[in-house]
């Protein structure tokens, strides 16, 4: 039995949940992180010394880092097609997984924390503005890439769509001004209709 530790309000937990749901794998999710605590308890730190979510346990095997979890799940269940068979397509999936983790999500982080998790009278507008500007750069990259494409890599839905769509879900639901990106919106609407996305992507909190 798989056990996934982490609260669903975390974008990183959302990615892991989406992957598990897409593959139809049984799992138990245990609330951890944020208001649920647990991540600094000795038994949790023994699993993940970073004290972050998610962590996945699988028959005695422990794995942390959400994109590593996605890769592990997809590669272990290749028949579902979440991991591209072609080596170059797989490299592109890796590229977008890394880009989501190192560029897109960090760009949106301050705007998210300031507008969603910080009381209105304590928000720093300059911090929000910088984050929105950085996020718009990423959104422009995505919109250009998705022009004329149904999915992030090739002709099939892959882990790259999961990772980038989870970050896009956060970006598109922030209460901030945004430049409209038609290709990005169309792709997000397409992948958002997947049943697994309905489980993985709750309202922002």
Characterization of this structure:
It is built from 8 helices and 4 strands, in the order βαβαββαααααα. The protein has helices at 11-23, 42-47, 66-76, 87-116, 125-146, 159-172, 182-192, 195-200; strands at 2-5, 27-30, 55-58, 61-64. The two termini are 29 Å apart. The relative contact order is 0.15. The model has no long low-confidence stretch (mean pLDDT 97).
What is this entry, summarized?
By secondary structure, the protein is an alpha+beta fold.
Report the order of strands and helices. Answer: EHEHEEHHHHHH
Uncertain spans = none
**Taking all residues together, what is the mean pLDDT?**
97
Estimate the strand proportion: 5-15%
- Large-scale geometry: globular
The radius of gyration computed from the alpha-carbon positions, rounded to a whole number of angstroms, is 17 Å
- Name the structural class: alpha+beta
How many angstroms separate the termini? 29 Å
Number of helices: 8
How do the strands of the widest beta sheet line up side by side?
A: 2-1-3-4
Outline the biggest β-sheet. Answer: 4 strands, mixed
SS elements, strand count: 4
Give the helix proportion (percent range): 55-70%
